[in-house]
Amino acid sequence: MDEEGRAREWWSLASAAAFAKRSRCVARAFGADTEHPPEGGAPAPSAQPQTLSEDLADVGGLKVALEAYLAVTKGPTSEDLRSFFLAFAQNWCYKARARESAVLVHDVHAPGELRANAPLSLTDAFSTTYRCASGSRMNPERKCGLWSPAGGT
Predict the structure, then answer these.
(1) Quick check: 62 and 118 in contact, CB under 8 A?
(2) How many CA atoms lie within 13 A of 69 on its CB side?
(3) CA–CA dist 31, 121 (Å, integer)
(4) How confident is the model at residue 136, as a pLDDT?
């Protein structure tokens, strides 16, 4: 919206292209793991456009929360960081029944397991704290986010 409330394109072509490229990378992080489907057997839906905005919000939310936590704790220990990441992941912990899994396929949110694992796997501080092997599911070689190209957190 412009200053008069009219819908109009306000991004430059370069900004729109960079957003699209980084969005695709985040979508791959949420939807590429077909060998380890989410609990309940529902397919990883995040390659679907309906979850992308929420996937981006999950990645951004973790980044902002971690930045705030680091600013407040001023030098957290590895134990502090493990507790932070565990609390984040537990937020998405649930068991979906078969009938709920069928509904999740049409939800605008990825299944909980992906909402926990994908943002964490894109976060450098998580990979370092848990000493995840480079190139593993939780520490992919290619990390991305909207606000920093390489995870940055």
Answers:
(1) no
(2) 18
(3) 13
(4) 93
Residues paired with 136 in a beta bridge: 139
128-141 pLDDT, tens digit per residue, is: 999 999 999 999 99
Residue 15's identity, in one-letter code, is S
* SS3 label, residue 135: coil
CA distance 136 to 36: 13
CA distances (Å), origin 138, targets 49, 81, 103: 23, 16, 27
Q: Residue 111 and residue 40: Cα distance in Å, rounded?
A: 9
40, 103 contact by CB (below 8 A): no
Place of tokens 């609390």: 87
The size of the chain, in residues, is: 153
